Amino acid sequence: MQPSELKEKFVQLWGTVGMEWGINKTMAQLHGLLLASDHALTTDQIMSALTISRGNANMNLRDLMIWGLIYRESRPGERKEYFYAEKDIWEVAQKIARERTKRELHPMMKTLEHLLKEIDNETPFGPEEIAFKKVLVDIHSLGKKCDQLLETVLKFEQNRFFKPILSLIRNKNNG
Amino acid sequence: MQPSELKEKFVQLWGTVGMEWGINKTMAQLHGLLLASDHALTTDQIMSALTISRGNANMNLRDLMIWGLIYRESRPGERKEYFYAEKDIWEVAQKIARERTKRELHPMMKTLEHLLKEIDNETPFGPEEIAFKKVLVDIHSLGKKCDQLLETVLKFEQNRFFKPILSLIRNKNNG
DNA sequence: ACCAACTTTCAATAAGTTATGAAACTTTAT
DNA sequence: ATAAAGTTTCATAACTTATTGAAAGTTGGT
Asked: Which of A53, A85, A117 is the last residue in one of the domains?
């Protein structure tokens, strides 16, 4: 298999993975394309690599930049802009995890808290309400646990786990 | 706010949360409805609560049963079937996490492994290939780490975390 | 100020996904 | 064996989301 074929396969894989986790397929493919490329690409290169329109490319590039997963680069003497991906996968995972926590988990917990307060104001407080409240409390606790776990893992593992891998790869290259 | 309104709000919330994580909104709402109910519901009750068709209800009930998130119940002397949700939230989280790991993470890792093997067969093995390979290796490592972390958490936290909460709620009810 | 190169926006449309409902099927009771 | 009650399937409709492409906007050079 040619290197270009392998990259193509990876781009497709990344698109599928993204889709499975509720991310726009094209955005994930675009991210994959830049992850697989060791140099920055222009919008036109991206358009032709993924056969997508300029508008589509632009929209997804913007979103990826908002997420902090890709960066824009200008080159002296050139008008067009180049895009490249954050290659530190741990950084990528962190950014995605933190952003989704902020955007999705926290609002959910807020709503649960609101509902719990409302339940306590109810006067007809029978077994049905108690059971319902338990479900809400449990989901809230689970959410909190996930949040804490995320912070713990991100803090602890960052250095312990990924740096050795980095140096392992460096060793392969260097000698 | 009435209890029914609160449940309605929760069902909507659960639908939204599900959607954000790549799950069919109706399936998530249906799951929420059963989570919020302390008794089992019939297909007709579900249909009218969510104003969905019989076919839609049936389809999503089937999927939820495949995931092990709800159960079917038959009652003596009645033809129709009743559905109720797994209420142990930790169990729910476990089932979802394990199933998604199996369905999504593992196939991804397999594909990555395949791509890595192919890369090593390549003869023109320049810096571009080395960079690409590093990305694949890192993603693979991250995947493995997530898999291990999941197992660790599921094993360790199950008893330590959720049981105390259960007893806390019981105490409130009992005295 | 103007042009040329390039980027961004957005209304229209295509593509993809989910829901419907009627028909087919299954099960149980008589 | 038949009917009644309930469940499942599936072709198509309804809806949602993603994509296009052309127009508007921006930027930098002369």
From this structure: A85
